[in-house]
Write the structure tokens for this entry.
Amino acid sequence: MRERVVGGLGTLPVQVVMAIVAGALLGAFAPQWGEAMRPLGDLFVKLVRMIIAPIIFVSIVTGIAGMRDLGALGRVAFRALAYFAVMSGFALVLGMVVANVVRPGAGFAIAPGALDQGRIADYVAKAHDTTLTGFFMGLVPDTLLSSQTDGNILQVLVVAVLFGVALVTVPQAGSGAETGARVLGLLDDLGAVLFRLVAIIMRAAPIGAFGAMAFTVGKFGVAALVHLAALVLTFYITSLMFVLGVLGAVGWIAGFSVLRLARYLARELLLVLGTSSSESALPGLMEKLEAAGVPRGIVGVVVPTGYSFNLDGTNIYMTLAALFIAQACRVELTLAQQALLLGVAMLSSKGAAGVTGAGFITLAATLAIVPSVPIAGLALILGVDRFMSECRSLTNFMGNAVATLVIARWEGALDREKLAAALA
């Protein structure tokens, strides 16, 4: 059994909360000092990202080797992708419905010509990376080892699955069996060391959360949040509706409470809130789901795939923000145009997997399909995008936690006693 990630650090959640509050206060009352704290947050997130690729690789390979049934592996992957597609559709539609009902951008009446497109030029340029052609070309790394160094989760997933399949298909008799057993034992030992490394890195979580929050408030200021409060508040409420309503219903059908799951994952959720990155809590999520009764093979396949394909918070953000920009620029979209926007958002959110700053970049790619909406309108939300990124990350994180439990239950592989004990 793996060791718990931060076994003895029972006070870590309290420390993270205190660090977030302290960072927000520093950013509000001493903005220049707050901005100067950015390296602390960036360094912590970089430390976590350093360990993500090898952890995903080891988890997937050992999970597939333990499963030893390639048919079961294919079934899990298919069910996961089908579930992701359905939930993405729910998230996109919910964002669009709320935007049409609340109309958060209706009071702006901004002339498109008055917007500064220079501020978003880099995001528009990067939007070309979200095409499906670029997505499929980016699935395969240049070399076997580059998948561990380029920071693309999908490439790690592809290499790990291929390696796991190769390990399973090694002859099970004679020297082949000995080779397979030695490699699997080595990977199991490597996994134990990697999760111990995660425990060490997590000790710096309060420092990272402090730096990230101080920079956010110091750089953009509370005034930026107040100025576009209608959009930010609408997005937070919509995301909460999705988690409690949609994910809550899914969890109830699968036999568990989303609220209890959130309490179980409180430490990881606080980490996501403080760093605005769901990747910072990925190792902890995988370890806790396994401790809650999900087989390692399912955790290893569903969680990394979900981080690329199951972005519920990002999907809500895309349709809500797109219609906000249209309303603010006095552009009334027809039902057909909104349907086109929804379809493109569904595809671009998948094509952006592995692209840094995917939420804002995919929004740029989506708006480019509807010429009547000025892409320069992205400048309207650039100042508050950082505040919304925290909510996007939290929603994405909860969506992937629920998805993993649902797929495990669907497979009949969920240990209900361990889950009940963990959530209790």
Notes: The longest helix spans residues 70-102. The CA atoms of residues 26 and 34 lie 6 Å apart. Residues 12-423 form a domain with the Proton glutamate symport protein fold (CATH 1.10.3860.10).
